[in-house]
Each structure stands twice: as structure tokens, then as C-alpha cells.
Amino acid sequence: MAAPDDAPAAPTPPTGPSPRALIGVVSAGIFVTGFGWPGIIGYLPINLMLKNQLHLTASDVTWFWSFATIAWYFKPFIGFACDAYPLYGTRHRGYLLAGSALAGLFWLMLAVVPRRYLPLMAVMTALNLSMAVVSTVVGGLQVEVSQRQGATGRLASLRTGLEGVMSLLGGPIGGWLAVVAFAWTAISGSAVLLAFVPVVAWLYREPRGAAVDRQVWTSVRTHLRTIFRSRAMWGATGLLFLVYLAPGFGTPMLYYQQDILKFDPRLMGYLQFLNGAGGILGAAAYGYICRRLPLKTTLVAGIAIGAAVTLLYLRYDSAAHAVMIDTASGFVTSLAALPIYDLAARATPRGVEGFGFGLMISIRNIAVYVISNPLGAYLYDHQHMTLRQLVWLNAGSSAAVLLFVPLLPAALLAAREESRAG
């Protein structure tokens, strides 16, 4: 399970910190809100606890995550709230510090909360809300810096590369945590989030004195008007939604790995490691490709090759095949996803970067966690579709998105990244 993608809302970076300091905060923020997200470091321990201790079906598990991650669907509006109401006299620094500290606390609460559905859901929802606040500010800074430097593709590659590192570390660590006491999972997640506090305190020096600004809410109407008039943005949003709408088989795969293939949790963690390694290589490759090929070429090729590689999961029937398939999937999935995020960043109208990009990614999160994952798990549990059938359905649905690429504005797809650099 991948972390919900960053959905920035509208923060404007302060003039104080240097670009290097901002990139340091952005990089660290991406990492801690990704690696420290329960769906990365806690993917195996939490899901196997829900499956084996609470005896939830695959559908139940996906709906647990759908509700627990509800804050990620409204991140643009979280961003406006942060802008309107300063915390500790600052618009961003206070939210980064308080959000990280609260997230660390809620992680620790998971160690002591009763092992029942509703208590776990309540704490997990609070944890996700805290992390969504932090991720909102970090994501807005990323969009601002990437557009200012003409480096949307390269910073998107940085994000995906960091996500690959998360999987690289999260796989083996999660596999080990899945076979020890669950308290170690809670302590580990808390340590990751709390580590962001000194980074922000050191690199993000924002002057105090910010006042409540209720005019922020007035600007929402202006932002929405700008966004609704942007054909490029809604074209990119529609494509993003359709790409991630395909019925997912991530949760059924976990059940298939343990119940059918009898994989040990540590092997499952190792497979996450290989998937992350492939993702890092894919991100590095796209950082090179995006400066030499127009976006249309990388977008079409990414969708087509991604759908084709999904079919490799038809041979997912042994540990040896799993090693090869998960590695190849990580590489190609990275190459397929990056042009889509590059498109989203380029299509965001000037002046509403955070809110526009955040709105697009929030719609992506809804497609994944409210529709795609629950639908795939429902077909697996209640319609008794096999994993092979889900693979065919996912690949076919993904490939069908190619029919919508010609509807995007040609100018948006024509330029290489280096031709945009200032």
C-alpha cells in the first residue's frame, strides 16, 4: 500500500529560508509523512493484525483504511484553514512542529488502544489527520519550489525516489515488526514522526507575529473560479482519476501471499524492499528522460507499459517469480506514475498552485482508497474473483485510459522539462 500522495493546499513559502533549506524541509517532510505513514512502516504489522487477530476480510481491511485516511481527501481545505489561522504566531512552522508531535503521540497510542475495530479506527483517523496537516504544508512548498525552478519532473522524481527508499526500508523493517510485539511498530512509527521536529526547528525559521486572516476564505471563491476555468487542470484531473480508478488488487495480494502461497511476513517485507529498489531506479530514469522527451511520449508510454507489466502478476505463483515481478513492477510503476504527476504539476494554474494541485491529488486519493481498493477487495471477497481475474481487469482498465490522452491540451504535453527551465 502506498502512502496517500501529497495533496498540498495553498501555503506560500516564507522569504526567509534559502531554496536549499526549503528543499531540505520538503525532502524530510516527504520522507517522514511517507515512511512514517501507517501504510508503509506499518503495512504488514497492521494489516496482518487486522486479518489474523480481528479476522477481517479483505473488504473489511480496505474499508478500514478508506475511513481512517479520510483527512487526506480534504487536504486543500486543511491548507486554507492553516493559512487562515496561524499557530504559535506562524502560518506554517507551528503546524509542522505540532502536527509532527501529535502524530508521534497517536502512533504511541496504537500500542495501548484495545484491539477492537472502533478504538483502532479512532486513533488511526487522528494519526492520519495529524500527518495530513504536515503533508499539506510540505506539499505546497514542493509545488512552489518546483514551478519557480522549472523542475516539476525532477522534483517529482525526487518524491518518487524517496518513496522508493521508503519501500526499500519499510519492507524489511515491516516484515520484522510483523513477527514481534506490536508495540515495536508503534514506537518505530512515533520515532520517525518525532524526528521531523528538530529538522523543522533548525531549517525552517519563520518569524512570529502572523495574525488571523479570514480573507483567506474569501480567496477560496477566486481560486475555485480560476480552477473551474482551467481546461488543462480538469483534463489532468480527469486523467489522474481514471488512471487510479482501475480495481486494485493490493489487499487481495496480501491475503493471496499468506493464505495461498504461505509466504512468511519477512519474505513479504523483502518483496516490498525489491519493489522499492525498482521504484528508485525508475525515478532516476525519469529524471533523465523527462528532459529529453516530450511529456506526451512519456505519458502514453508509461500508461501502456504499466498496463502490460501488470500482466506479469498472472505468473505470481512462487517466491522466485514474486522476486522478479515485484522488482520489475516497482521500476515500471515509477516510470508510469511520474509523467502523471508531472502533468498534474504543469497543469496547475499560476496563483493557485497549492490548492489546485492539492485538489487534483485529493481526487486521486478518493479514486484509490474509496473506489479502487474497496472495489478490488469486494470482487475478491464477495464475487469470488481470482487474483488472475483481478490482474486482467486492472490491466485492461488501465490501458483504456490511453483513449483519453488525446483530449488533453496539446501545448501541455509538447514541451520537455529543460525547455521550461529558466
The poorly predicted ranges are 7-14
Provide the residue-averaged pLDDT: 85
CATH homologous superfamily identity: MFS general substrate transporter like domains
Report the principal-axis shape.
Answer: globular
Structural class: mainly alpha
Following the backbone from N to C, one meets helices and strands in this order, namely HHHHHHHHHHHHHHHHHH
Q: Number of helix segments? A: 18
Description:
This protein has helices at 19-35, 43-52, 58-68, 75-84, 93-109, 117-149, 152-177, 183-194, 196-203, 215-228, 231-243, 250-260, 265-289, 295-310, 319-347, 353-381, 387-400, 410-414. It has 422 residues and is an all-alpha fold. The chain has a single domain (19-400), classed as MFS general substrate transporter like domains (Growth Hormone, Chain: A, Up-down Bundle), CATH 1.20.1250. The chain is globular.
Write the layout of secondary structure elements.
Elements: H1 19-35, H2 43-52, H3 58-68, H4 75-84, H5 93-109, H6 117-149, H7 152-177, H8 183-194, H9 196-203, H10 215-228, H11 231-243, H12 250-260, H13 265-289, H14 295-310, H15 319-347, H16 353-381, H17 387-400, H18 410-414
Helix pairs in contact: 1-6, 1-7, 1-9, 3-16, 4-6, 4-10, 4-16, 5-6, 5-8, 5-9, 6-7, 6-16, 7-13, 7-15, 11-15, 11-16, 13-15, 14-15, 14-17
Supply database-style keywords:
mainly alpha; 422 residues; Growth Hormone, Chain: A; 71% helix
Give a brief rundown of this model.
With about 425 residues, the chain is mostly helical.
